[in-house]
Amino acid sequence: MKWMRAGMLAGVCALAWNMAAVGPASAAGKVVPLKFANVTSQSAKDAGLVFKKIAEEESGGTLKINLFPDNQLGDDRVAVESTVFGDIDIAASSTSPLATMFPDFYVFDAPFLFLTSQGTYKALDGPTGREILKGMESKGLKGLAFWENGFRNFTNNKVAARKPEDVASMKIRTMENEIHLAAWKAFGANPTPMAFTELFTALQQGTVDGEENPLGIIDGNKFQEVQKYVSLTQHVYTPYLICMNLKKYNSLTAAQKAAIDKATVESTKFQRQRSQEYEHQIMGKLKAAGVVVTELTPEDKAAWRKRVVDAKLYDLVKRKMKHPEYVDDFLKK
Question: Read out DSSP for 16-71?
Fold first, then answer.
């Protein structure tokens, strides 16, 4: 009996030591389910599947990623707010609706801040991008990565716009965004805020001359049916933010955190590549439909950026930010 009691005591002690070492979830063999609220972009939905596969495999099956694409759990802002409260574990969101929560996200409204895709990735993955993500911890979020939402481009029915002078006096639909409105005024246009749901009809009837959006939205809403020219101005780059509830992340074991980190890195590379592939497909589709697609040279973009600098728009962006130095950091890239 004494031998049996000693053996049982040793077993209990060993189990307690193992639980302390590896964490409660994995020690009990418990699978940790994580809700991932994703957006409507196809490249993001594809990348969500990659994230799920890697996180589950690398965690040895102790993580279970439950995907909810197409904003099933609420729009972008609702998804992020729900992630703060812990009702959702991981969320993807455009940075645009989050700037009031995280003022440093206003940096992504700055026109012609980024001039190439590769330069953008380098900047977002570099020290400044990491600092922006780290700043989210004050709100209870773990900033994981920036995926690609895309560059905004200009469409119209009058001219293959290449220079700011080409858009002079045009009535252009924009978002109700102080920085975007100021930018188009600096370019000489007449920016007109309008609900997105009204835009197709407004373009069709000539109420506005043009609009600006990422290629995926231009194609997805069939604007090529009512717009003859697409200029790849790439005037504003909007990323998707991928974030996680900070307490949930910190509650994971070291191995589970490593699985999340690897899934983040690999899905980010995949999503950006897939986003570029879709954009090339869309450009081919637009050209096949008879749309005139105009690509800008570095010299062309420099002329647009000069208008931004002369109008002191970067100063306007800085006044809205907690860390205005991030604008200058990105401009150096």
Answer: HHHHHHH-HHHHTT--EEEEEE--S-HHHHHHHHHHHHHHHHHTTT-EEEEEE-TT
Tokens, residue 322: 């907690």
Q: Is residue 166 in some structural domain?
A: yes
Distance between CA atoms of residues 214 and 233, nearest Å: 10
What CATH number corresponds to the domain at position 310?
3.40.190.170
The residue range of the domain holding 53 is: 24-331
What amino acid is encoded at 144 in this protein?
Answer: L
* SS3 labels along 112-161: CCCCCHHHHHHHHHCHHHHHHHHHHHHHCEEEEEEEEEEEEEEEECCCCC
Do residues 300 and 163 lie in contact, with contact meaning Cβ atoms separated by under 8 Å?
yes
Is the residue at 83 inside a domain?
yes
The two tokens of residue 158 are 């009058």
- Whole-model pTM above 0.85? yes
Q: Using the 8-state DSSP alphabet, how is residue 306 labeled?
A: H
Q: For residue 141, what are the CA distances in angstroms to 18, 113, 247? A: 29, 26, 8
Give the span between the Cα atoms of 38 and 40, in whole angstroms. 7
Domain annotation covers residue 96: yes
Question: Which ranges of 159-253 does DSSP label H, i.e. alpha helix?
Answer: 178-186, 199-205, 215-220, 246-251
173 is a domain residue? yes
pLDDT tens by residue, the chain, 333 residues: 344 444 444 443 443 334 333 444 444 469 999 999 999 999 999 999 999 999 999 999 999 999 999 999 999 999 999 999 999 999 999 999 999 999 999 999 999 999 999 999 999 999 999 999 999 999 999 999 999 999 999 999 999 999 999 999 999 999 999 999 999 999 999 999 999 999 999 999 999 999 999 999 999 899 999 999 999 999 999 999 999 999 999 999 999 999 999 999 999 999 999 999 999 999 999 999 999 999 999 999 999 999 999 999 999 999 999 999 999 999 987
Query: What is the total count of domains within the chain?
Result: 1
Q: Which two tokens stand for residue 58?
A: 């690398």
